[in-house]
Write a structure and sequence with these properties.
This protein has about 550 residues and is α/β, with parallel strands linked by helices. It has 24 helices and 16 strands. It is about 40% helix and about 15% strand. Strand 4, helix 8 and strand 5 form a beta-alpha-beta unit. Helix 7 runs parallel beside helix 8 and helix 20 packs across helix 22.
Length: about 550
């Protein structure tokens, strides 16, 4: 029931009979309460919008309310709420009898560690968090505010999709929300923290974010209601297997992080935010590091095997190089043959991309190419230097990859590197073969600083494969094929398989001992902080999506 209607009624109009619940709710007003008391009562109702049954269901599921979640996200007493008294306008299906303030979403702005952010949280206790017309407009309004104010936007999602009782108006308002989120993309960091079921167009809205974090206990995302999925209806799969956190982390590649519970999910968003600027025209905050810039990385020699065909964990290399060994890996269980994440060098945020030799020998495939390309573009729009660690024998062969579009998806990776204007540093630890060498931030794509360890191998392909192609007739005629093959492989490696050949051509800026890696990278990064690159004016490039 609208307060405007009630005030009009008290100004001389006849008052129609009110439903029992509504009469109780506004009994204080008709009893002659003061305006201050009116406001206090309305605000109290807005703060307790969910009914008792919904609240009981919420607690049984181990969930927090929307306001409790915002309290976990923001610094104490920093939240400034907007649109507290918004109500839906639907009159069908007896919806006019229940018009809770806020319409199922709490929105506003506040502080995280002293940084201003804009946020909203869906309230599952009100209409199951479904997105009606005013609900969507409220989120769109706060997103537009974030874009104008150039502040990060954090959404806490927990709703069962669109509100069917609102009909087409709900879809129209949701379309406006999607349009604003697209306008925000690339201008401000956008986070989606999934703490319940998010379905339909709401899932699309959350998917437009730069970072999607799902809680393992209740986080689920579906494009369609799971009740319409044949495997769910038949009992072949449950909802968690289809759209739960692990499914989106390892299969769909939607979730950048999986959190244990609601608090961990919110803390994960805060941790990522610490590496980012407020908007695309700002620089990430540089912090003072106690880790010496000239620290020797002696463990790197132990990490790298002598046999070039033996695997190792690229994350151990990263931990040895970066400040205090802290590396925030993203998408850790998706496309595991490439590693991406944030760290700091000399106190400055860097985005790190590294081939993972322990998975598929570090080969690039479709998923790895898309994963890395998306991350490069994220770093580029938020002015984060990119450090690439290369140990790649090539693109993964096979009909699945070829028919799946490895050419198109691999081109995305090459495109992202060539398009990026942030500082780009590249270290070749071991193999860098063929097209994969070119796609991994090579000098020819305007990388700013390229170095290699003495173990680096830059070539069109591996020595064994090259010898089998170049000397196939000679090997066929040789009396001792194995001995001849070994000699030819050694000769090929001497001519083409070491980093000094590339260094002589200027494709490597230096060949260094592994222990010097941190020192050399920081020395290169410091002057590149002022890097500016002119880009010809155009609407946008046409990345092979």
């Amino acid at each position: 029931m609208s307060p405007d209607w009630l005030l009009g009624s008290l100004s001389g109009y006849s008052i129609p009979p009110l439903p029992g619940r509504t009469a109780k709710r506004f009994g204080w007003l008709m009893a002659g309460a003061s305006h201050s008391e009116d406001l206090d009562a309305m605000r109290l109702e807005a703060f307790n919008a969910g009914d008792r049954v919904s609240m009981e269901e919420l607690r049984k599921a181990g969930k927090q309310t929307a306001r409790e979640r915002i309290s976990m996200l923001l610094d104490a007493d920093s939240f400034v709420e907007v649109d507290t008294f918004v109500q839906h306008r639907s009159v069908d299906f007896n919806m006019h009898l229940h018009r809770p303030y806020g319409d199922g979403v709490v929105a506003g702005h506040g502080m995280i560690d002293g940084r201003r952010v804009v946020c909203f949280a869906q309230d599952f206790a009100v209409f199951s968090g479904t997105m009606g017309e005013m609900h969507a407009r409220k989120i769109a309004k706060i997103a537009a505010f974030a874009e104008k104010a150039q502040l990060p936007l954090i959404g806490i999602w927990d709703g069962d999709g669109q509100r069917v009782e609102d009909g087409v108006p709900a879809l129209g308002a949701t379309g406006e929300l999607l349009d604003i989120l697209v306008a925000c993309s690339g201008r401000i960091p956008i986070f989606s923290v999934i703490l319940g079921t998010v379905a339909g167009v709401s899932a699309l809205a959350a998917g437009l974010s730069d970072f999607v974090i799902l809680s393992d206990d209740n986080g689920q995302m579906f494009m369609r209601s799971p009740y319409f999925i044949p495997e769910i209806a038949s009992g072949e799969l449950d909802q968690q297997s289809l759209g739960g956190a692990e499914a989106h982390a390892s299969r769909s590649g939607l979730a950048c992080l999986v959190a244990e519970d609601e608090e961990d999910a919110i803390l994960s968003a805060i941790e990522i935010l610490a590496y980012l600027p407020d908007h695309t025209l700002a620089e990430p905050v540089r912090i003072r590091s106690e880790d010496p810039a000239d620290r020797s990385c002696d463990k790197l020699t132990e990490i790298l095997p002598e046999d070039s065909n033996r695997p190792y964990d690229m994350r151990h290399v990263i931990a040895e190089i970066v400040d205090e060994g802290r590396f925030l890996e993203l998408f850790g269980t998706y496309a595991e043959n490439i590693v991406i994440g944030f760290a700091r060098l000399d106190g400055q945020t860097v985005g790190i991309i590294g081939n993972q030799p322990k998975v598929l020998a570090g080969c690039l495939d479709i998923d790895a190419s898309v994963k890395a390309a998306r991350f490069i573009r994220t770093c580029d729009v938020f002015n984060i230097p990119v450090l690439t660690l290369v140990d790649v024998p090539g693109f993964l062969p096979g009909t699945v990859q070829e028919w799946g579009g490895i050419i198109r998806h691999g081109a995305k990776l090459l495109y992202a590197y060539a398009e990026a204007t942030v500082p780009k540093l590249t270290l070749v630890t071991r193999k860098a073969y063929g097209g994969a060498y070119l796609a991994m931030s090579c000098k020819h794509l305007r990388s700013d600083y390229n170095i290699a360890w003495p173990s680096g191998e830059l070539a069109v392909m591996g020595a064994e494969s090259a010898v089998n192609i170049i000397h196939r007739r000679e090997l066929a005629e040789a009396e001792d094929t194995a001995s001849t093959h070994s000699e030819l492989v050694a000769e090929y490696r001497r001519k083409f398989g070491d980093p000094y050949v590339a260094a002589r051509h200027g494709w490597l800026d230096d060949v260094i001992e592994p222990a010097q890696t941190r020192k050399k990278l920081i020395q290169a990064l410091r002057p590149l902080r002022s890097k500016r690159e002119w880009v010809p004016p155009k609407k946008h490039g046409n990345i092979p999506l």
